[in-house]
Specification:
The protein is α+β, with helices and mostly antiparallel strands. Helices cover about 15% and strands about 35% of the residues. Strands 4-3-2-1-5 form a five-stranded antiparallel beta sheet, covered by helices on one side. The longest helix is centred in the N-terminal third of the chain and has 7 residues.
Length: about 100
């Protein structure tokens, strides 16, 4: 039995949301999408998600485009929206 080893996977700790928020100083990140409107065939409005993002407790934001190429770091979610010529759509409630 010398070749029996403990699992190499780390133990995952599952905390409830309130516990994690408390660890982060009482603020939780918020999820958002950046949605762009364009005109398709017959001048129909077509909406597409161009990126998903997270608003961090300090007010800054990070985005990941659907193309998977590159990450964005922004002063605010609103600045990401302006710079990416898109609408800001919140996916998680405000806290």
């Amino acid at each position: 039995m010398d070749d029996v080893h403990e699992p190499e996977l780390l133990t995952v700790y599952h905390a409830d949301e309130a516990e994690v928020v408390a660890l982060a100083g009482g603020a939780a990140p918020r999820l958002f999408a950046l949605v762009r409107e364009d005109y398709g065939e017959d001048d129909a409005v077509v909406e597409e998600v161009v990126a998903y993002g997270v608003a961090l407790p300090d007010g800054s934001a990070a985005t990941v485009p659907l193309s998977g190429r590159g990450l964005g770091r922004w002063l605010t979610p609103q600045s990401a929206s302006r710079r990416m010529l898109s609408e800001l759509v919140w996916l998680s409630p405000g806290r």
